[in-house]
Amino acid sequence: MLRVPAKLSSFAVVNYLPKRGLADLAKLSSLVDIKPDVREALLKAPQTVVALESTIITHGMPYPKNLETALEVEQVVRKTGAIPATIGIVDGRVKVGLDSNQLTTLAKAGKERSIKTSRRDLSYVVSRKLSGGTTVAGTLVVANLVGIRIFATGGIGGVHRGGEQSLDISADLVELGRTPVAVVSSGVKSILDIQRTLEYLETQGVCVVSYQCPDKEFPAFYFPSSGSKADYNLNDAVEAAQLLSTNKSLGLHSGFLIGVPLPEEYAIDRKLIDDAIDQALADAGQNAVGGKEMTPFVLEAISKRTEGRSLESNIALIKNNARVAGEIALELNRLENCASDEKIGEVAQPLRQRAPVS
């Protein structure tokens, strides 16, 4: 529980709250609903909250596998001691933390009755009282709004193949450059141009790091290795927490991409996936599929071509990323709250010594 020392000066109190990372939820939009357990965590120890996206529920998997996965991923986060907050939009309300009924509603709605919601779509979906699954970009916007600093997902969007001509570049990359949230993912989806995506992230000022990969090998969603390198490597959750905390202390407003490789036991034969991607992209071209419909179309085609093996890998990497994000969240909470408690004690002690005896 958060306790401000009774003899603490008003100046110290003002400076104490930001150091603890506490969000000012009193100023939050009336259009945002926060689940009770998430709200409690945000008020007391916001570092422990892990954001989860909902596009994977509405557009990434078929029902009921999408619902089962969403519930299982939340449980993975809880097992680390962190608090999961799946973000989505239900009937025009922005939800930070979805209960089982709301998760079921989005899972059953699917892509036919929900909108894939990025930053550009948020106002429309909310104003029309529609439902939507938030993309990486959309989830980043909402997470930052309420003070969540860690977000776990499968893989982010990026520069599409041929993007140098089509300019088809995911809004996820731009959002990462202006949002101080760490995204824990298995890199960039394999269907994209990974090297150009990394170049674009550099331009946006996003720090890209590998996780527990001494050679800094950047993962490629279905594969532990993409052939491209990250800027740096983090050896464990402690180093990740130190990175996030330093970013906040410096007042930087850019985010991080933490690339966690898919466990080897879930990796798929590269040629099988590459052939499936090539065929899916060709089919997308013939069917004039583009824009935000491209990724769901291609991933579904790959799942069919691999007889569901790609979906199994997708679920495995999401769970693994959720575990890593939860571990980082706990370390960040330990780092910042313990440090703040020590500093506040240093301030409070002389105040107590000077306080008159009643």
Structure, explained:
By secondary structure, the protein is of the alpha/beta class. The protein contains 14 helices and eleven strands. A hairpin with a 2-residue loop joins β3 (83-90) and β4. It is globular.
Helical coverage, percent range = 40-55%
Query: What Rg, in angstroms, do the CA atoms define?
Result: 21 Å
| Main sheet properties | 11 strands, mixed
| Distinct helical segment count | 14
Shape: globular
- Poorly predicted segments: 1-20, 343-358
Number of strands: 11
Q: From N to C, what is the helix and strand string? A: HEHEHHEEHEHEHEHHEHEEHEHHH
What's the end-to-end separation, in Å? 27 Å
Task: State which percent range the strand residues make up.
Answer: 5-15%
Structural class: alpha/beta
- What is the average of the pLDDT values? 87
